[in-house]
Amino acid sequence: MNARPNAWHSATSRLILIYGALFALWGFVLVGVIQWETTRYLNNVIDQMLLQRMHYIGSTEPDRLPATVDAASKIDPHGIMSVGLFDHEHRPLAGNIDNLPRALPRDGLVHQLAHGLPRPDRDAERVRARGLASELPNGDILVIAKDTSTIDGIGAIIRRALLWGVSLTIIPGLLGGFLLRRGPEKRIRALQEATDPIRQGDLSKRLPVSRRGDEVDQLAGIVNTMLGEIERLMNEVKGVCDNIAHDLRTPLTRLRARLYRTQQQLEGQPEATLIEACMVDIDAVLTRFRALLRVSELEDRNRAACFDEVDVGQVLRQVHEFYAPVAEDRGQPFELDIQTLAPIRADAHLLFEALANLVGNAIKFTPPGGQVRLRASMDKRGPRVDIIDSGPGIPADERDAVTRRFYRGDNSRTTAGSGLGLSIVSAIVRLHGYALDIGEAGTGARLTLYCYALAPGEKPGTCLSRSVPEVTPAIV
């Protein structure tokens, strides 16, 4: 949950990118329209100039026309406005156009020259041009053309202006977006940090709310209201369950005492056997009530303030010593393998209780003659404890459910128990901030207790069941 969010996935970044893309698109469309309108206007001006020049030169007397054409070409030595006179065999008679443009119609209308026009001041480089050709009454052909590179230059100026405008807008926009994104990102980080204890079960925590009153604060307020209601309902349900378990213990204990006295009085009679069976059932109910109250006690996170430095190896030796006679009576080899372990901060009594529950389950569900191993090693982040057995194992689809209260899998329904052992283990693991992984080892089960807190951003599964890929060595 502490993983830093991707800055480009934030709403501010997306808005900046969207508005930047829309601005760039609109800028290109706007410049395109401006350039098109400018080009159309200037082409119209050039066309008018060409038509006027054609009308002026074309109205000259035939015997004076070559001189007029030469005079017009000398006025424009750079060939911006070119004039040419050709005979009916397309031979040049006058002007600065050496060759008659073959693709130019002789209809007296202005057209774009497909192959452009050479410029004498540019080493005969061909430039874009517009021109018109008209056939005179004597069969000669008069051609007038004008260079339109000025229009192309204006288009280049407009495009450069667009690039400068986009650059000078996007750069401050990105800088402003970066500054605007820092505030929401900081608030999201604060919300993430506030959700960590809530995710771990502390429903008394609330999300921070600033004085801005914006959408984030409104959402945080809604979540806080929801958390308050959830906390109230959870406390009510927990209180009802605890009260039922606590209040029923006294009458059940009295009932058992009375049944015991009755059994003593009926000793040797058939009714004594029935009473003994009733006492066994009452003992099972009392055991379940004690386990429920124990789970509720462990869910009180204030006990974490009493943690101290604990030697995990010493606790494991005590668990092994405690259960070794039980495993021996069942003909089960009970191995203990402890490597050098770093001390941890924990409650030694609770840690012993959790490991004892796990070892007890392994011995109980392993058939006589099977094998149980208790192994401890160091991971990269702390001690790891593995309890491996050769029993029936825990099916993959039940590994997240076995730590729920009263849950009993298909393999354990015929075995005595309350279904609360792993619930107690889960509560202890949560209290310490550790992790419990339920897997398989061959045909049996492997329960691994990781005696360290989760890494930033690491998400535990339901009931702290998860996998840790970097753990070595593998248990087979």
What can you see in these coordinates?
The strands form four sheets. The chain has a five-stranded antiparallel beta sheet with strand order 2-1-7-6-3. It has a five-stranded mixed beta sheet with strand order 9-11-12-14-13, with helices on one face. The protein has a two-stranded antiparallel sheet with strand order 4-5. The chain has helices spanning 11-58, 65-75, 149-199, 215-265, 270-298, 312-329, 348-365, 421-432, and strands at residues 81-86, 92-95, 111-112, 117-119, 125-127, 129-135, 141-147, 308-310, 334-338, 344-346, 372-378, 383-389, 435-441, 444-450. With 476 residues, the protein is an alpha+beta fold. The chain has eight helices and 14 strands. A hairpin with a 2-residue loop joins β13 and β14 (444-450). The chain has three domains: 1-199, Beta-Lactamase; 215-298, Signal transduction histidine kinase, dimerisation/phosphotransfer (DHp) domain (Helix Hairpins), CATH 1.10.287; 304-464, Heat Shock Protein 90 (2-Layer Sandwich). The chain is rod-shaped and about 155 Å long. α1 (11-58) packs antiparallel against α3.
